[in-house]
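Before our next group meeting I need something from you. Please put the record directly below this note.
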Amino acid sequence: MRSTKDAIEKIFTAICYKTEAWILEGDLKGFFDNIKTEAITTNQTIKDDKEIVETVNNLVKSGAITVNNELIETNIGTPQGGVISPLLANIAFTGMETMVEQWAWDNRNRTKWT
């Protein structure tokens, strides 16, 4: 339930009040095509729910149909244009956020934060 406007407001507030915060922005080419299923299914939030893990695995392996009605097998990635894909991406990104926070903590004396 967040929007681009919410992100801009949060960035503005962090800059104005000089709170300790970091901002990542990027364009990950081919992200949805190449996301590793394990990045989703091993996440703390869902890893113990066997039904969700099985559903995610089934979605990834469900394949795709071309305009010529040919089935293409898929073993990685998330359904293109699927309503579930942004949620799966957010789950996978949780691990990346943790990794970046750990990197920032480990390098806090080597990097000057402004």
